[in-house]
Amino acid sequence: MENTVIEITRFSFSISSKAILKDISLNVKEGEYISIVGPNGAGKTTLLKCLDRIHKGGSGDIRIAGRPLDKYSQKELAQKLSYVPQADGRISPFTVYEFVMMGRYHHLSPFSSPGKEDKDAVHDALAITGISEFAERFLRTLSGGERQKVFIAAALAQGAKVLLLDEPTTFLDPKHEADVHRLLARANRERGFTVVSVTHDINSAVLTSRRILALKNGAVAFCGFADKFMNNEILQKIYEKSFLFVKHPQTGKTIVAPEVP
After folding, report:
1. What is the DSSP letter of 111?
2. Helix, strand or coil, per DSSP, at residue 151
């Protein structure tokens, strides 16, 4: 039986008295791949930040691996959840190896040096993401797509089995976007990582996810299997527009067709 790794029950969250999340409920099972979609301002990023306790407070209940979120220390939480934020353009002055090793911070005491287990975890994460050749390069010398793989490698090296990703393919060219999607799918299928990913790309959400959570104005507008999401009755309520659909030539899944201007 699959274990529940994230359990959100009637959770609401406000910033400066403005309701951002309203009565959210969601259970995430071990090994699932879930995409969170919705228009701008729907509360998608806020929900991830509440899960990782970047935003604290709120009403309702959040449990991680069966334990209330507020009972975790930040170090303990880092052993359960890894968070990859949106790219913000800032580039750390570290090599790839140094940056990925920082993902091991919760395994180390303040003055200890990385041990064999830490080094093995970093090398494994570099290998999974296909960036071992970049280990000694500085982040500033990499492309945006290459840096995104580094950020994911740091999350994998952290050792948590749940990955929270906030728009991991934003600003990437088609090649690197496809690379990141393949990387996350492989981590999910072959390594057993649970993936919860915020995205604006409806097609990639349907093609990669088992389930989709759609938010609108801070509330749940849809939560269910990905193949049930692609119909205009649902999408029009969320995005306030109609869509054209086609069948994907390789998978047969329904996807959104681009509209002619």
Report:
1. T
2. helix
Q: Phi-psi region for residue 240, left (φ > 0), alpha (ψ -120 to 50) or beta?
A: left
Tell me which residue of 54, 52, 240, 74 sits closest to 164, measured CA to CA.
52
Domain regions of the chain by residue span: 1-80+204-261
At 41, give phi and psi (nearest 5°): 80, 10
| Residue % of the chain over a pLDDT of 70 | 98
> Are 84 and 100 spatial neighbours (Cβ–Cβ below 8 Å)?
no
Write the single-letter amino acid at 101: M
pTM above 0.90, yes or no: yes
- Nearest in space to 199 (alpha carbons), one of 160, 172, 167: 167
In this structure, how many other beta carbons lie within 10 angstroms of the beta carbon of residue 138?
A: 15
Phi/psi of residue 157, nearest 5 degrees:
-65, -25
E strand residue ranges, the chain: 4-15, 18-29, 33-37, 59-64, 67-68, 81-84, 162-166, 194-198, 211-216, 219-225, 244-247, 254-257
What are the C-alpha distances in Å from 175 to residues 14, 180, 241, 250?
38, 9, 29, 18
**Crossing angle of the two packed helices 174-191 and 116-128, in degrees rounded to 10:** 130
Mean pLDDT of 123-147: 92
Encoding tokens for residue 231? 């119909």
Stretch 41-56: mean pLDDT, rounded? 95
Longest dimension (CA), the chain: 59
- The token pair that represents 162 in the structure block: 């749940």
Tokens of 135: 């280990």
Closest by CA to 177, choosing from 211, 209, 210, 143, is 143
The CATH classification of domain 1-80+204-261, taken from the options 1.10.4080.10, 3.40.50.720, 2.60.40.1180, 3.40.50.300: 3.40.50.300
